[in-house]
TrEMBL record:
Organism: Winogradskyella haliclonae
Protein name, per record: Type 12 methyltransferase
Coiled-coil portions: none
Pfam families xrefs: Methyltransf_11
Domain of life: Bacteria
């Protein structure tokens, strides 16, 4: 058993504990979601447009709200996540809402061991790649799961944000932009409910934009675009200010908060 297996087991235990807390949180607005509110944000909606009739694979789906939002828009969805508690809740929501998404519990790096079909779209968003020690097998799996001409889309927090430690209130620059060594954090609460008493124990890795782009191109994908944005749809970092369009940004912001990449399999 390698070190990464231990890291993944710790992360899985933490994410299993987060599920019930997140499902009741204001951020995930479960009541509104069940009544038909989409959980998808402007960036991904604009990037992927009309998904009706398309097959979509959602990586690291948590408990499936985004998957089910794509499903409501007419996509035929399959999704994976490391947390069995999350997948169990996703399956319950799928049944309750009368949708036809499929959910698989596995490490995202093992997706091709569990899913053999190929897809028109592979999608992942907001806080996903930092849980992976190496992006090359991730990108290889994405290429395996895409049909020729299929689209991969990621919208993710900018790697500059992960250079800081936020646990002492004031952000402190502590980590390298593209750090090979694992980063361990232990803190009380969770991004969706900071008053929660649960203790998060998490292992993560920082990946610079060069690593992300090179992993995808080495796997055979062609980059359509790489965009960087100042505004986040989520209020998950200290002292953010809500803008007129309902997104969040930093006061005196000096670097982007998000990046998005759209690529395709040739």
């Amino acid at each position: 058993m390698d070190e990464n297996t231990n890291y993944f087991e710790t992360n899985k235990a933490t994410w299993n504990k987060k599920v019930a807390i997140h499902a009741q949180s204001e951020m995930y607005d479960m009541e509104g979601f069940k009544l038909g509110k989409t959980s998808l944000m402007p960036y991904e909606l604009e990037a992927l447009g009309n998904v009706e009739g398309k097959s979509l694979l959602h990586l690291q789906c948590h408990f499936g709200q985004d998957t089910l939002s794509w499903s409501r828009m007419g996509a035929k969805c399959t999704a994976v996540d490391l947390s069995d508690e999350a997948i169990n809740l996703a399956k319950k929501l799928n049944t309750e809402l009368g949708l036809d998404a499929e959910f698989v519990c596995c490490n995202v790096l093992d997706t091709s061991k569990y899913i053999s079909e190929t897809f028109d779209i592979v999608f992942t968003s907001y806080g996903t790649i930092g849980w992976l020690p190496d992006l090359k097998p991730w990108a290889k799996m994405i290429a395996e799961r895409l049909k020729p001409g299929g689209v991969f889309y990621i919208v993710e927090f900018h790697p500059i944000l992960w250079m800081f430690d936020y646990n002492e209130g004031k952000p402190e620059m502590k980590y390298h932009y593209s750090q090979d060594e694992v980063i361990y954090e232990e803190y009380e609460g969770t991004y969706a409910d900071q008053s929660s008493k649960m203790v998060s124990k998490e292992y993560g890795w920082n990946h610079g934009l060069g690593k992300v782009v090179n992993a995808l191109t080495e796997a055979g994908l062609q980059i359509d675009y790489l965009n960087e944005h100042d505004e986040s749809p989520y209020d998950v970092f200290p002292d953010l200010i809500k803008t007129e369009d309902g997104l969040y940004k930093m006061k005196n912001q000096l670097f982007p908060m998000l990046f998005e990449i759209k690529a395709r399999k040739i």
